[in-house]
Design brief:
The mean pLDDT is 83. Strand 1 and strand 2 form a beta hairpin. By secondary structure, the chain is an alpha+beta fold. 13% of the residues are buried. The N and C termini lie far apart (89 Å). It has four helices and four strands, in the order H-E-E-H-E-H-H-E. It has a four-stranded antiparallel beta sheet, with helices on one face. The protein has one domain. It is flat.
């Protein structure tokens, strides 16, 4: 019987790779737990502007409103609304897009998945843009 010596090669830097991988995962998890970025800008006259986009008018207003409130809450102040403007900037006529969304909801309620998905082809998540000018006091 003949015994042969097996040689195995172990990479010495495998521990470093594992440590780097663990650190990368931890950084990713911590980044996900951070506060969300707000769409708020400052104007030359010291007021603030929050901008919200959505496929629906109410959604864009809600997003801009929420960003303004959250911005002032982070500063531990109350929001004071100065001006609001909502515009439709979709690719198709606003009435056509609204009718297609309504038809899609009806099709979805009746069980037609393809009909519901087809109605989304006429709209995008930036059809409505709401700009709210505000200050924190």
């Amino acid at each position: 019987m003949i015994f042969t010596e097996e040689k195995t090669f172990v990479r010495r830097d495998s521990g470093r790779i594992n440590l780097a991988l663990v650190l990368l995962v931890l950084v990713g998890l911590l980044a996900a737990c951070g506060s969300r970025r707000l769409n708020v800008m400052q104007t030359p006259d010291e007021n603030l502007i929050a901008v919200g986009y959505s496929a629906e008018r109410s959604g864009s207003i809600s997003r801009a409103n929420n960003d303004a409130h959250e911005y002032c809450e982070r500063k531990k102040r109350e929001v004071v609304f100065l001006k609001q403007d909502t515009v439709y900037q979709g690719q198709y006529d606003e009435n056509v897009t609204a009718a297609a969304r309504t038809a899609g909801r009806v099709a979805g309620a009746l069980g037609s998945v393809k009909g519901a998905q087809a109605s989304g082809a006429l709209s995008s998540s930036t059809d409505y843009k709401t700009t709210i000018e505000f200050s924190c006091r």
